[in-house]
Write a structure and sequence with these properties.
With about 260 residues, the protein is an alpha/beta fold. It is about 25% helix and about 20% strand. It has a 9-stranded mixed sheet, with helices on both faces. About 40% of the residues are buried.
Length: about 260
């Protein structure tokens, strides 16, 4: 049975604790566990997934930042324990699936995606990233970007022959999230991989940077975030972004087939 996700119906989905949506339906946010919610969504119900899932255990344990003089980052959410989200991303997306990861994880993403969906490993080149504090080895120069595509549709993007490297400084602003990606970087990814009016999903929404990038570039957005306090941050940032732009007025609304419960 298919269920159109009105406000009341959305709350009936397993795992949805709270919901935010704009009056025109161009932005829909759920607070809940994406691993519980995603299996209830239809195949191909979003155009693209651009997401920043948790990284592996080793990366979480060794995370450091230049904030506070090079202190440890307090990552207060769990590391990945498996790669099951990759299959769900590819099932739900009609086209591109872009996922940030540690460079060392790119091989795991390739295996999880399979030959039909794997495109290549990309790179977020961080020119001002944290140096190696111990000074006895090279510092980490960037983060991986797993680039995948749903096999059901033909590949196309907006950047021609551009290499899969995105150079952008680390965002050390006051955004309340330990692994927030720079808005400039997310805007570039949204512009390169998606079209005006497309529906972009981020199932590990965090503080909502992907959503802000979508709003600024005239894309629709569907986000899920498990942690209540980060959901609140995302809602606040997205409300502010909507107030600052008129692009959403021209974007098409989410159609009846979007965000429907699997049969």
């Amino acid at each position: 049975m298919n269920t159109n996700l009105t406000r009341s119906e959305a709350m009936s989905l397993r795992g949805v604790q709270r919901e935010f949506r704009t009056d025109d339906g161009s932005v829909v946010l759920y607070q809940g566990d994406c691993n519980e919610i995603m299996p209830q969504l239809e195949d191909g119900s979003v155009d693209h997934v651009i997401a920043d899932p948790p990284y592996d255990q080793r990366t979480h344990e060794r995370a450091r930042s230049l904030k506070n003089g090079g202190s440890d980052i307090a990552i207060d959410f769990s590391h990945l324990s498996n790669m099951q989200h990759v299959g769900e991303f590819l099932r739900i997306s009609r086209r591109w699936v872009i996922a940030f990861c540690a460079l060392e994880q790119l091989g795991e993403y390739k295996v999880a995606a399979g030959d039909a969906a794997w495109i290549r490993g990309g790179l977020w080149d961080r020119p001002d990233g944290t140096p190696q504090i111990s000074g006895d080895r090279p510092g980490q120069g960037g983060e991986g970007i797993a680039i995948m595509h749903a096999p059901r549709t033909k590949k196309r993007w907006n950047a021609g022959g551009k290499r899969g490297t995105w150079r952008c400084g680390v965002d050390r602003s006051a955004v309340d999230h330990p692994t927030c990606k720079p808005l400039k970087l997310m805007c570039e990814l949204v512009a390169d991989f998606t079209e005006f009016g497309d529906l972009v999903a981020d199932f590990y929404m965090g503080s909502g940077t992907t959503g802000v990038a979508c709003i600024q570039n005239g894309r629709r957005f569907f986000g899920i975030e498990k942690e209540p306090r980060y959901f609140d941050v995302a809602v606040s940032r997205i409300r502010e972004a909507i107030a600052r732009t008129s692009l959403l007025e021209a974007a098409p609304k989410i159609t009846q087939r979007s965000f429907t419960e699997a049969t």
